[in-house]
Amino acid sequence: MLLQFSSAQGPEECCIAVEKTLNYFLTVTEQRQVDVIILEQEPSR
């Protein structure tokens, strides 16, 4: 499965929302022992 979390060209608030969503996703997948590989990650602008 391939998932993409993106704030596109949104304001900094969108980047914060993506960061919180990704952190929650990683927490839940770790609890459920699901392997996750992050293929690409870019800092906010």
Automatic annotation (TrEMBL):
In its UniProt entry, what is this protein called? Peptide chain release factor H
